[in-house]
Amino acid sequence: MFVFFLQELDKRNESYGYRAIRKSHPETSLKLNDSFILTTDLDGAEIDPEMLKLRNENPNFFEVFIDNPDKKFKLQLTKENERQPVWTRTIRKNEYQSTVHSQGEHFVDKHRAVLIDRVSNIPSTLDELLNKQVITQEAYDEILALPTNREKMRKLYSGPLHSAGHEGKEVFYKLLEKKEKYLIAELKNSI
């Protein structure tokens, strides 16, 4: 049952563009109903929840979000109200930089038809893609000149976005998360 749960969790995370980095378990046993805190030595990291109570009903997980990490960092798990960590592991750069998107179909490719049909905030998205050098001024002008949103999106996909590869698609995806947040949330939840 637990292995099935992990497989389903991995599939869902992959569809969101995340992946689990599996590390060895703590050397000592952890007791049910004890509370733990996960910390990192990297500034700007977000860890959710702040504290986790170990239960056996469903597997418990911390989510660690780090925007564009550029070096290795440590994670430490400490029992609430204790100083000595029960688990410490280093996450190396090559572990977190090999993302799911580069191993499989990127979110924006997987949902291409829906995005072409429903993205509406195209001019400001193009402005930011130009600003971040994902598209050129020439491509920007060509796309903006097209009469419909669908044609603009098709041109964006078939030209500049295709050429920009994984990194360009990742920039596009992050922009859509901000500018079309309800659409992106709906697509994430449909998986």
Structure characterization notes:
- The protein is α+β, with helices and mostly antiparallel strands and 191 residues long.
- It has nine helices and six strands.
- Strand 5 (73-79) and strand 6 form a beta hairpin.
- The model is unreliable at 98-103 (pLDDT under 50).
- It folds into two domains: 21-98; 103-189, Death Domain, Fas.
- The strands form two sheets. A four-stranded antiparallel sheet has the order 3-1-5-6. A two-stranded antiparallel ribbon has the order 2-4.
Short account of what is shown:
This protein is α+β, with helices and mostly antiparallel strands and 191 residues long. It contains 9 helices and 6 strands, in the order αββββββαααααααα. A hairpin with a 5-residue loop joins strand 5 (73-79) and strand 6.
